[in-house]
């Protein structure tokens, strides 16, 4: 097992909430958040791993007992915003209201301050870097929204690959990439964890740890629920969403045995000059 401490993070949202389906239509889909969440919590408990759960505000409103249970298990609670909107499609005040509403919801459920944020779809890009100012103004000290890759929906390809100060008092901990030539390869979780062979993920994370860097891994509860409904989606979205879901649980067990993981706050504390 690697001796470097890595961040294990969870984007806590139901299966339909990350499919660019508007909140106004969510009532028409089956709620299955507890199914994948409970499987994931059991895996983490079996491995004695604690994680950061970036919780969608509207999901927390629907099942506050689940969020309390997650905190009671020793996991850190962060915010994933309230309504899962692309940041760069919002006006600045819309984004502020979304963050403030999510913090209000979460603060009424858990008894520890919310300090960490991840944007839906990793959608803090060059055109929405103003979001950093609002996050800092809202009292958050850690963000993990920047993906140093090129993707049709997200990414800042030339962003730093390691933690940096996005604004005074706000540390950006970017999603993990492996540098291959002049290109960053996304290897930190989600669909990439299911698409790439596990041996490639393990090789890349070991190489990152060998450099002394902490990896940031992310997963969604629905990725541990391969039986969740299949609906018609644009091919580009549907392919990655449903690809190889049956392998997630098995691969996660291997990952948790091969690497050391902790909540995001532990990575923050480990960074020189960051407390």
Describe this structure in words.
The protein has 275 residues and is an alpha/beta fold. It contains ten helices and eleven strands. Strands 1, 2, 3, 10 and 11 form a five-stranded parallel beta sheet that branches. α5 links the parallel β4 and β5. 43% of the residues are buried.
What keywords describe this structure?
275 residues; single chain; 10 helices; five-stranded parallel beta sheet; alpha/beta
Brief sketch in words of this structure:
The chain is of the alpha/beta class and 275 residues long. 36% of the residues lie in helices and 15% in strands. Strands 1, 2, 3, 10 and 11 form a five-stranded parallel β-sheet that branches. It has a four-stranded mixed β-sheet with strand order 4-5-7-6.
How confident is the prediction overall: mean pLDDT? 95
Helix coverage percent: 25-40%
Largest beta-sheet characterization = 5 strands, parallel
Output the helix-strand order: EHEHHEHEHEEEEEHHEHHEH
Shape: globular
Strand residue content: 15-25%
Q: How many distinct beta strands?
A: 11
The secondary-structure class comes to: alpha/beta
Instruction: Catalogue the unreliable spans.
Output: none
Spatial separation of the terminal alpha carbons: 26 Å
Question: Over all CA atoms, what is the radius of gyration?
Answer: 17 Å
Number of helices: 10
